[in-house]
Design brief:
The chain folds into 2 domains: 117 residues, D-amino Acid Aminotransferase, Chain A, domain 1 (2-Layer Sandwich); 159 residues, D-amino Acid Aminotransferase, subunit A, domain 2 (D-amino Acid Aminotransferase, Chain A, domain 2), CATH 3.20.10.10. Helix content is 27%, strand content 28%. It contains 8 helices and 17 strands. The strands form 2 sheets. Strands 8, 9, 10, 11, 12, 13, 14, 15 and 16 form a 9-stranded mixed β-sheet that branches. Strands 1, 2, 3, 4, 5, 6, 7 and 17 form an 8-stranded antiparallel β-sheet that branches. The longest helix has 14 residues.
Length: 305
């Protein structure tokens, strides 16, 4: 989706005019993908804009940094405050937020240990990642020919820039094939993730999703849906899933910060039908939670004002 330019981007402790937020062409991360990032959303609520699970996202950013041996030159609370500052400076009521920790200019080569570390935070208005129609009709999925990397190839627990080439190959393959999104299998042939979302299916009134050992990202929206389902007394199982489990599911849906919660209409041209009742129920509670309307999940809303 196109980026809507804003007024400011936060860079290394200061707000910089949007068009002046630049890096050198020899920045290490540009050449080797050696950075980590987060995708976060803020929503308009009755009390003003609130960032959904902001602290959890920043904590995951630091976990990714630790895995990739990056020493972030700011404390977590400083980045929490910087996200809110960026939203206020851009006068946004709802938005997508992209913190990026990247290795900067000054060193070249595969050894990144002596590279400088820089941090930026951008925020802009962003609509439905998979299209508004996806929320009502569901999305068409294709099982990708590209496999998800495993724990001893690249760390799936880290949200790192270069690792997403794997997802981009799958996404573009699906789009060029006439589908909305790709599902990726791991090296054992079980479902891992979609290209940028976690995968859930419904069978016999229970919710199933791949375990972290199957190499999905430990999604924060995934965790939220598991919590909501548990609170609704819906059984949740983390178990290996074959591609045929998707074909025969009663319902299926995707979760992620960008995609939010989107029903799956078909997988490899096997129709699942319109969004089912359990998907609709979870979606209803999720949207109420992100908009600050449910006291039970009030701690997930971190207000900007």
């Amino acid at each position: 989706m196109p980026i809507t330019p804003g007024k400011f981007i936060w860079m290394d402790g200061a707000l910089v005019p949007w068009d002046e937020a630049k890096v050198h062409v020899l920045t290490h991360t540009l050449h080797y993908g050696s950075g980590v990032f987060e995708g976060i959303r803020a929503y308009e609520t009755k009390r003003g804009p609130a960032v959904f699970r902001l602290t959890d996202h920043i904590e995951r950013l630091y976990q990714s940094s630790h895995i990739h041996m990056i020493d972030v030159p700011f404390r977590p609370q400083e980045l929490v405050d910087a996200v809110k500052e960026t939203i206020r400076a851009n006068e946004l009521t709802s938005c997508y937020i992209r913190p990026l920790v990247y290795r900067g200019y000054g060193e070249m080569g595969l050894n990144w240990l002596n590279c400088s570390v820089n941090v930026s935070i951008a925020a802009w208005p962003w609509g439905a990642y998979l299209g508004e129609e996806g929320f009502t009709r569901g999305v068409r999925m294709k099982v990708s020919s590209w496999r998800r990397y495993d724990h001893n190839v690249l760390p799936p627990a880290a949200k790192a820039t270069g690792q997403y080439i794997n997802s981009s190959l799958a996404k573009v393959e699906a789009i060029k094939g006439g589908y909305d999104e790709a599902i990726m299998l791991n090296k054992e042939g079980y479902v891992a993730d979609a290209s940028g979302e976690n995968v859930f299916l419904v069978r016999d009134g229970a919710l199933l999703t791949p375990p972290l050992s199957a190499c999905p990202l430990a999604g924060i929206t995934r965790d939220s849906i598991i919590r909501i389902a548990t609170d609704l007394s819906i059984p949740v199982y983390e178990s290996d899933m074959a591609r045929t489990d998707l074909y025969t599911a009663d319902e299926a849906f995707l979760t992620g910060t960008a995609a939010e919660l989107v029903p799956v209409r078909s997988v490899d041209d096997r129709e699942l039908g319109d969004p089912g009742p359990l998907t609709k129920k979870l979606s209803e509670v999720f949207w109420s939670a992100v908009k600050g309307d449910l006291e039970r999940y009030r701690a997930w809303n971190e207000y900007v004002g």
